[in-house]
Structure formats: structure tokens, C-alpha cells
Amino acid sequence: MYIIIGGGGDIGYYLTKTLLNQGHEVLLLEKDATRYQALSEELGEAVVRGDACEARVMEDAGAKRADVVIAVTGEDDDNLVICQMAKRRFNVNRTIARLNNPKHEKIFQKLGIDITVSPTKAILSLIEAEIPTTRFVPLMKLRRAGLDFVELRIPAESPTIGKTLREINLPRNSNLALIVRNNQPIIPNADTMIQEDDEIFALVSPEGEDAIRKAFGALG
């Protein structure tokens, strides 16, 4: 199966690595030069520098013969463009898009995106579930994908208080999905400022829990 992935962040990186190990033909597209260089050192020819939102780049990547196109950039608009172009211009059979804002799910579905994946929605479903048996199924789905979720509270002595997320050196193997502040959910972005007693919910790889707790000064 030939799979094109748009977006070389942590999700794109781990997807590419896993799919290659499973024997698939995979091409990862990353537009940032510095990030591309870091990825190419490990993934070699499986990563190409280019913007997956551009038709020329997708054509050069062989989108006409792709079985699946997966868009996992940090911008929902870009993920929508990538998937729509794959469908309408290159007749790709299946498209999968990461949703950073779960409110966009219906729009993506109406515009023909086959599958949407929302880390925030997945974690919210776990938080809102009141019966332990209802938590079991979504949690197992995450674990089968090699992910788990971590909940932590920002202590008073945390060095991250008053800093925005862009100022905090978060580990690569984690994906911050939700902040709950005064019982109100906040979908985080780079400008979100951390406050004392914030409840942080993140998707992490198996080795990522200690790293993210250390980053927020929430060990123990």
C-alpha cells in the first residue's frame, strides 16, 4: 500500500516510522527546512521537503497512485486542503485528517473527508465518561495505536506558570490535547498561557509520560 502523509510533526513522524516497519510504502511531506533535515537523518528517502497543500508537490509525490493520504499538520485548514485535493484532483480512494479542533468535524465530513481523528475528542470522551466500563473501549483503542493519555495538575512551584506553550520545551513524544481550567475545557494552542492548578491532558507515547511531567514540573 502506498501512503502519503502531510505534516512532519510528532504524529507524522511516528506514523511514518510505524507504517514503514509494517512494510508499507510511505512518503512523508514536510515543508519546514529545519524539521525536514532532522527527519531525513532518520527516515532517509521516506521524507521529502514540500508543502502537501500544493498540487505540484502532491503530483511529484505520486498522489495519483496513492492508496491513502493522511493529513496531520497542526492546522485544520491545511489538513482539509490536503485531503480535498487528494480526493478531487488525484482520485485518492481514502483520506484521513487530523482534527485539532473537534468543532470542525462536521465540516470535514460534509466536504467528503473519509476519516477524521481528534485527539482532543478522544480525551474528552474519557474525561466525560462516568462508568469505568465506558472508559475501557476508547482507552484500549489508544493503547493499540501505541498511545496513552496522561492527566496532570500544574503545581504552585511549576516553572511553567505564566509561560505560553511556545515558551515551554515540550517533549516530542507528547501531544497536548486539552487544558481544564476552573472546570472549563480549553483547546490549547501555542499562545495558551499555563496557570497554577491547570489540569493538563496529553497523548503520549509509552516513553513520554515522565518527560511531559518533568516539562511541567509535575513529577511525583
UniProtKB/TrEMBL annotation:
It holds the Pfam family TrkA_C. GO terms for cellular component: plasma membrane. Residues 1-119 form the RCK N-terminal domain. The keyword NAD applies. InterPro entries: K_uptake_TrkA, NAD(P)-bd_dom_sf, RCK_C, RCK_C_sf, RCK_N, Trk_Ktr_HKT_K-transport. One of its GO terms (molecular function) is potassium ion transmembrane transporter activity. Signal peptide: none annotated. Keywords: Ion transport, NAD, Potassium, Potassium transport, Transport. It comes from the Bacteria. The keyword Acetylation does not apply. Residues 137-218 form the RCK C-terminal domain. This is Trk system potassium uptake protein TrkA. It comes from Thermogemmatispora tikiterensis.
